[in-house]
Design brief:
It is built from 19 helices and eleven strands. Strands 1, 2, 3, 4, 5, 9, 10 and 11 form an eight-stranded mixed sheet that branches. A three-stranded antiparallel sheet has the order 7-6-8. The two termini are about 35 Å apart.
Length: about 425
């Protein structure tokens, strides 16, 4: 899960998809006998990293010119360009439901023959396959960089009090009890006024307590969210006992500021929050650990999703040049440019330098013990973040039952066509 732009998912009718694919509008451009490869990437905060990559590539290549665009609201820009049949050659997007919709619209090229695929960590390649509504033959996305979510903690504060990093749920709640009873520091801090922040602990708990493919299982009619998310919902409520009073009155920025100022020992959020925290306290000694959701440490999983992946548009006329760009992008030195700029995690296997605030997650990253953000599979129209906030504010005895039943009901409402498509696919396998 990352801070969300709340951009609606792409919706393409069959007629429109056909028009896009049959139009054959070329996106090639030649200047002084050089092939121009155009890339559009969706992270404007990483513009400086991509400018450096573009400059390096063009300095090293005489026959190809790489042009990278990093617009604000990139997904909206991309969808508009598709309508106008103005296709980039390469897109850099997140591994979430937007990708699922683009793939379902048959807009991406199968890149199974690209030699760099074998260098990507298996867990991240599996995340890509799990994002497919219907299982596809081939590879359509190459994971580039990931972020991680769990619990950030104040390393100096932990060392000062002699607190140990918890590895099980009981150890975690015992630590929260100790902090609460022996100091005037909040164990945790939330910024639930911004509803999207409710998804941070939700995702970090869900990867350890629910099946990674629960959404696909529900679509196939093999389980329900009421069954699969019961423990996640219960433990979300428990966390409130250790946080600041009325967390719904405080925003994401408030929570980052409070943690930076030492008002809490821990902050359940993703690594993406570190720059905001350090803008308040640049010298803060921050580390992190995976959410200890289970009673057996071996069952815990790091919540890590593909924050940036590279896809090749099916309409490109420059496959050979595009593959040369991919080779450059996936060189270790090029990836390190991005990691340094964004405090990110590489999806490629190798010896990369990770930011120090991920030290406590490093063993999980190196052993490929990771699972995707569950909200990457949720349709934005369903507003799961607001549903979670409503549930957390509900103090009635049947709050969890009401919430989980609503989750199932709303899922069917917003995924009706997809569920029908999965049903037909499953019938075809019998």
């Amino acid at each position: 899960m990352k801070k969300r732009n709340n951009i609606p998912c792409l919706v393409l009718t069959g007629t429109f998809i056909s028009a896009l694919l049959l139009s054959g509008c070329s996106n090639t451009d030649r200047s002084d006998e050089k092939t121009v490869v155009r890339m559009l990437q969706y992270k404007p905060e990483a513009v400086h990293a991509f400018e450096e990559m573009e400059e390096r590539f063009n300095a090293e290549h005489d026959d190809i010119v790489l042009k990278i665009e990093s617009p604000n609201e990139a997904m909206t820009v991309l969808k508009t360009r598709l309508i106008k049949e103005d296709y980039p050659d390469i897109v850099g997007i997140g591994g979430d439901i937007n990708y699922s919709n683009f793939l379902d619209a048959d807009l991406f090229m199968d890149i199974s023959d690209f030699e760099g695929i074998s260098d990507i960590k298996p867990s991240y390649m599996q995340i890509e396959k799990d994002l497919e509504f219907i299982p596809q033959e081939g590879i359509y996305a190459l994971p580039y960089a990931a972020n991680c979510a769990g619990i950030l903690y104040n390393r100096d504060m932990f060392e000062e009090h002699g607190w140990e990093i918890p590895e099980t749920w009981s150890e975690f709640t015992d630590l929260c009890e100790e902090i609460q009873s022996t100091t005037d520091i909040y164990p945790l801090y939330f910024g639930y006024k911004d509803t999207w922040t409710c998804l941070a602990p939700w995702n970090a708990l869900a990867v350890g307590l629910a099946d990674a493919d629960i959404c696909s299982q529900v679509n196939a009619g093999n389980t329900t969210f009421a069954e699969g998310y019961s423990e996640v919902a219960d433990k979300m409520k428990v966390l409130l006992e250790y946080a600041e009073p009325n967390p719904y009155a405080y925003s994401y920025n408030d929570a980052c500021t409070a943690f930076a100022r030492g008002e809490s020992a821990m902050y359940p959020i993703g690594s993406y929050a570190v720059p905001q925290i350090q803008s308040v306290n640049p010298d803060m000694n921050i580390d992190s650990f995976p959410f200890p959701a289970n009673e057996d440490e071996a069952d815990n999983v790091l919540n890590s999703g593909v924050d940036l992946q590279v896809c090749v548009m099916k309409e490109t006329k420059n496959k050979e040049a595009v593959y040369e760009v991919l080779r450059f992008l996936y060189e270790d030195e090029t990836i390190q440019i991005y990691l340094n700029d964004q405090n990110a995690v590489p999806c490629k296997q190798g010896d990369f330098e990770l930011p120090s605030m991920l030290d406590g997650m490093k063993s999980y990253i190196e052993s490929d013990r990771m699972s995707d953000f569950h909200d990457h599979h949720y349709p934005s129209e369903m507003s799961v973040d607001a549903m979670i906030q409503t549930y957390l504010m509900d103090e009635s005895d049947d709050a969890a039952e009401v919430f989980l039943n609503r989750f199932d009901k709303e899922w069917k409402r917003y995924n009706r066509d997809l569920i029908e498509k999965v049903r037909k696919y499953e019938e075809g396998l019998r």
